[in-house]
Amino acid sequence: MTAVLGDPAPAGLLDAFWAYERALMANDLEQLDRLFADRPDTLRGDAAGLLVGHEQIRRFRGGRGGARLRTVLDVHVRVLGAEHALVVAVTELERGGRGQQTQVWQRGADGWQVTAAHVTVPAAAHDARIWRVVGDPLVRPTGAGPLDGLDVAVKDLFAVAGQPVGAGNPTWLGHAPVETTHAWAVRTLLGAGAAVRGIARTDEFAYSLAGANAHHGSPPNPRAPGRISGGSSSGSASAVSLGHAAIGLGTDTGGSIRVPAAYQGLFGIRTTHGAIPTAGVLPLAPTFDTVGWLTREASLLARVGDVLLPEVAPRPVREIVVVPELLALAEPDVAEAVGAFAASVDATTESWDLAHLESWREAFRVHQAAQAWAAHGPWLRTRLDSLGPDVRARFEAAAEITSAQAVAAAIGVASAGRTIRRLVGDRVVVLPSASSVAPLLAEDVSAVRDATMRLTCLAGLGGLPAVTVPRATEEGLPCGVGLVAGPGRDRDLLGFVRDREERLRR
Amino acid sequence: MTAVLGDPAPAGLLDAFWAYERALMANDLEQLDRLFADRPDTLRGDAAGLLVGHEQIRRFRGGRGGARLRTVLDVHVRVLGAEHALVVAVTELERGGRGQQTQVWQRGADGWQVTAAHVTVPAAAHDARIWRVVGDPLVRPTGAGPLDGLDVAVKDLFAVAGQPVGAGNPTWLGHAPVETTHAWAVRTLLGAGAAVRGIARTDEFAYSLAGANAHHGSPPNPRAPGRISGGSSSGSASAVSLGHAAIGLGTDTGGSIRVPAAYQGLFGIRTTHGAIPTAGVLPLAPTFDTVGWLTREASLLARVGDVLLPEVAPRPVREIVVVPELLALAEPDVAEAVGAFAASVDATTESWDLAHLESWREAFRVHQAAQAWAAHGPWLRTRLDSLGPDVRARFEAAAEITSAQAVAAAIGVASAGRTIRRLVGDRVVVLPSASSVAPLLAEDVSAVRDATMRLTCLAGLGGLPAVTVPRATEEGLPCGVGLVAGPGRDRDLLGFVRDREERLRR
């Protein structure tokens, strides 16, 4: 029994309200579209964000596969002049909990129609797009130190004692043993006073830059709603963006820290290859795999480095260069933001011959793929069905690589690495962290992946540290400035960025 | 920079909007009250529920200690006739994530005022009022069986391997070791195909019936918003109410399953004392402590019993009695619902002499307290400060019990138990599960606790099984019908309730 409260309802309003409710429960898209005003300023908001215009709302409805089953408990009616009325409904969901639906209705030639709606449903136990397991905390600190009171979102590739490693794939998780010791990086963070907040989602086997896990969905990108999170350290990045955790621990093989940092407006570091032990981390391509992390502030990015990175003699950043040919690899809005950053740090402009870039990227791709198949092929061979289409296609291509191709790629990687390390020298190179802002959720990201890999493969090939500094495009979307230095100069980069951002905030 | 979109704003509207925003950020309660229309039908809703009337909204604001810091990104204005306007704001929270605020403004003698508002903020990583740790799942099943595909919210008194036992008290949690084996009940459920969804909040050391944990707040009561959850198996109950988990595993010493079941409209069972091993469960008062569980359906309540309870020869329920003197111990609305249930099962009315009830309850209280202090006094003695005021007062009183008092209480308990077991005999007794519906969050619950203990202590003293069947008062609030039987008749009770509820649903 629904209680109808408030003002006496104008003629036809409650009929329209109930017609909408029935259409919602039946997922009758035509009727739902009819009952929402066909205007560019019709609004519909929920926890995922505000949709503006009938067309956006129509597309959202078409894609969601129906609303949750519910009962309407109370309806509050408020007459707002001759043409408008407010209807606030308290709902009870079949799966449990209560929600609220606020609607502004307008009477027009087509009868009563909704021109604005705001919907709340009960929150889930946890945000399963971001977290596989989360706690308050999941693992307590084992020591005290510079990270006291901070918590870490651990990418689901790192061993956390008491939990299996899930690698973003439910079938793998189903077979994975419960770990008995923490990965080196996890153990070290716990010893420095940090707690493990939880285990964060990853793209399957970290073999993607999108974050759009086929099983768990794309973690939200709160700074750019409606756009992908970036991956593969996607859950760690979204957890930090949303304030669920202070530190997002992840890995970066071909951009898996730098890309989500750029897409979500976070600071991030991919460390020098080999600088941080990968013990207890599921490999993707060991010659490229590195440990990295994401934060909302440059000072904390550096503080985590103080804990995880080997101590080396500091070498202050003296010369910064910007390479127009690298800027040109990004979309104009991103290139502009990166160029502005370079100007602000008085970077020297330097021209690079990138004639071999395409072959470098291809060598990176093939060497990565050959290693990925070596690492996971024996297990995946009979379980390719368990993968989402993108990652599956990538592993299937990896399976086809011949040993001759793999050897040629390894040689190409070694040579490209030497060239890149020589080009960077003892300077810091400013370049785009990703080729574009975060693509829209519906977009095909394969072209974006190729364009971004052209940029991210450089640090990968050189084994170099790369820090992402968040900036915004003119349109206001997050984008990433990348700073790359010679091997082992992680702390130099972190200190430079920390000092610079602190000066900017003063 | 805030973008203002939509219709041109009427004079004064945006000034009022920004005045409200400034007042919200400053927690200027007077100004906020002024800008909300002083009417009995003013509305304000969020994920916690819908508040109706200026007074309710004022009280809510007075109690919350300010809104989260935020920036307004976009404002959408819609003119609704001469007197009304809609303002939808997209906000960005300082801690991360975006929210939405929908407001209907009305122009009156006092200028523009809000007459309806709906607010969304980003969901937390997990609902920390309900869960200490939660996962997808936290612990995988170890076998297959009748509980395949179901998940369990485990009260934070049970050992879960890989996690410490928190007992609802952060200081205890800080000292607790990581468990290496599961409690018997957890292990048995996992073996039957269930997964552990997570570790659910409890009142501190289970020494309360309220659910209002001083450190983590009161878990929501979705069936009775604004009212307490009931405890001490509070998190398990709310998790089941909200559909976070199918099964809520808990304990019942003096009502800790029956009371939250009654308050939240769930099925629940407190088992015969000793029927289910308490190995791996933190004790409160071992002579009364029992394992129990909560579900949304009677059939699942029974199915869990098939897994956890010892197999005994079934003895069908033949005679059901209802005792007017017990009904009279409840509030009239609850007594009426319980009486109606008794009539529907053709219960025989029987009069009991309850002259000793007060002394029974007191013997229960003292015997429980003496055991609670024996169990936790050595640790708590120097840590009473770590407890919330209610539980602290109870432990402090427990510390004062002399050994003579404890012995006298134990003797009283034994004698009362014999009497109660004799009174129940081989019948089933219908009585209120709790003396009232769930008290309002702000209410002082000490009188309610005493009244409910008068009812719940009976099964406790007798070591008897008690099932709660959810019903509603005439006002529509959840209340619990209790069914108590002789020792060991848990399966008889579960089967009776399952069959009866299934008949009702046909």
TrEMBL record, chains A, B:
Coiled coil: none annotated. Transmembrane segments: none annotated. Pfam families: Amidase, AtzH-like. Residues 213-235 are annotated as: Disordered. Residues 144-309 form the Amidase domain. This is Amidase domain-containing protein. It comes from Aeromicrobium flavum.
